[in-house]
Amino acid sequence: MSRCLLSDGPYTILVPVDSAFAKLDQAELTNLQTSPGLLDEVLGVHVIKGELFSWDFVSGRVIVSDNGHFIRVYKTQQGTYVNDAKVLKWDVEANGAVLIFIDTLLDAPEGTIYEVLRKPEFGLSLLGDFVDAAGLNRTLHRTAGPYTMFAPSADAFAKLSDVITDRLKRDTQLLKYVLEYHVHPGTLHLQSLDRNGTLTTLYRNHNIGVSVTDDIRLNGVAMLEEADIDCDNGVIHIIDHVLLPSSLGSVIG
């Protein structure tokens, strides 16, 4: 990639500062250091063809990295973010490049939302089976999106009563409604969830409540087990409870 940067500019480079690498645990750091292909892919997410300046980073804009991944811009009271990284310094001009310094290393997406559900390391295979049964696999595999999926873990499904679980397995339309209730049309990284409010979902006219005290809770019950899993068509947050729309309470129960 270094040869490419020397010859094919200009570029905009999102530069993680030293403390960004310090946020990685030892296993992640070792994996980057010993996997040249992975390192090249991750670094490529930080490179944008052409010169962009601070005024080009409009909230909601989606920018494509030089290796074809999506970078989404957010503006909050805390500052401007690209995916889950906060911009620390803008518009440092270098020979053939504009440098923008960020506080977090951007992840290389591991596929679409559906593909991530099917990766065993995330422990979301049960959710993937339900997505297949409800016929939402094509929606979550399209790169059109983007979407934010609040993905219940296997332990979250285990908290449901047998009656509810059996009903969801038998009634695919009901299952589809419940799963659509876990998907927001748009991309929301963690910093966008850090405030009280409501989120729209694919289950039309049914919103998720967000409350923030010492932690973030959805509908007052679900907490985030893992946040900001970047995908080619959005982002996944793994949660510890299945969200059930109140309007379906009498139907499910």
From TrEMBL:
Name the record gives this protein: Periostin
Positions of the FAS1 domain: 1-106, 111-243
PANTHER family for the chain: FI19380P1, PERIOSTIN-RELATED
Highest classification ranks of the organism: Eukaryota, Metazoa, Spiralia, Lophotrochozoa, Mollusca
Pfam families xrefs: Fasciclin
